[in-house]
Amino acid sequence: GDQEAGEMGLAAVPGRQAAFRQGLATAVQYCKAVGCPRIHLMAGRVPLGADRAAVAGEMETTFTENLRYAADLLAQEDMTGLVEPINNRITDPRYYLNTPHQAAAILQKVGRPNLKLQLDLFHCQIMDGNLSRNLETYFPLIGHIQIAQVPGRHEPDSPGELNFPYIFELLESLGYTGYVGCEYAPKGDTLEGLGWLRSYWESRGLQHGGTSKAAE
């Protein structure tokens, strides 16, 4: 969308279907060029001046239709579309898609196997908490995980509400084999900020890079 005009994705924005399709086609070309099989289909914001409840039905209809179109297009390229709930309590008060429950209901309604949930645990914690149960409940729908500490949105080992070693072990026990995206703002230098990962690997008996010492 037009970021200067305050847009943040278009998939659920009524009247912007043509621009959504054009943007999707461009994104597919980028993904093919860099070998990335997943695209985040951003829902977008409730239009300025509109009441969320009053436009919810029209936005869901638009979102559903656009997601079906995207899924069919992405299937031709063997790609997966992702939808991400973004909290409207701190990060973006006008964002349309806010909770994993809302996302799961829409994914079920759309009914396409190559559409998945992009679950950012920062947003999920702020909106609902109950992370263990939510991960277990929505695990079959999850196509990507993102992490950040709450409430500061910094490194996972920074002070905050979330116990990431526990969460990582839970993901392993559930059989998650995808990437975990570091969707956080480093408190300082990016490389220094990755010190938490080196410490985590060492606590698990792994060398830097995630390889087993036994394998070495």
Structural summary, described in words:
With 216 residues, the chain is α/β, with parallel strands linked by helices. The chain has a single domain, classed as TIM Barrel (Alpha-Beta Barrel). The protein has helices spanning 17-34, 52-76, 100-110, 121-127, 131-138, 164-174, 190-193, 195-203, and strands at 38-40, 80-83, 115-120, 142-147, 180-182. It has a 5-stranded parallel sheet with strand order 1-2-3-4-5. α1 (17-34) packs across α2 (52-76) and α2 packs across α3. The radius of gyration is 18 Å and the shape is globular. It starts with 16 loop residues before the first helix and ends in a 13-residue tail after the last helix. The relative contact order is 0.10. The model has no long low-confidence stretch (mean pLDDT 95).
Main β-sheet, spatial strand arrangement:
1-2-3-4-5
Question: Per CATH, which architecture?
Answer: Alpha-Beta Barrel
Q: How much helix, percentage-wise, in residues?
A: 40-55%
How confident is the prediction overall: mean pLDDT?
95
Low-pLDDT runs of 5+ residues are none
